[in-house]
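Lab notebook: predicted structure, single chain.

Context: the supervisor wants predicted structures on file for every construct in the current expression panel, including those that have not yet been purified. This is the next one on the list. No modifications to the sequence; it matches the entry in the shared construct table.
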Amino acid sequence: MIKNESGAVAKKQTILLEYLRDDDAIKQTENPFLAEQNRVRKVLIGNCRLMDIKMEKGGNFEMTPKKEDKYFECDQTKGTVAGGQEVQVKFVFKPPSIDPLLQDIGALKGLGQWIESVWECKLTGGYVEPGTPDAQSIDIVLRSYVEQI
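Prediction complete. Output recorded below exactly as produced.
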């Protein structure tokens, strides 16, 4: 439970990573960063460098899915970030293969549904002000469109 400055319980922080539909990604010819968003989304985890190096501590992170996840993978589920450094964590969308019999039927093209998966990012360590909890938890919501009947 995290409390804000007034003592009230604060809402858990959430990051939403939404993947582009394949049709929208194909249209992104001028911007390769946007074009890759139909399969890969990234989160940057950093640890600030302090002026007083004696007070500096490494930070740790851990990514865990709230339930078994067959559509999304994380390239780094655990790691450490030294002061003044940052780590890029990738979440890759693995869509199911489309049935070859249904693939060529134009009326069914694009039919499907949005799916969501929630991963928990636990942050510990690093510099923490006195009286502040050492651990922090953030939900990362991964959302993508799956073309399936």
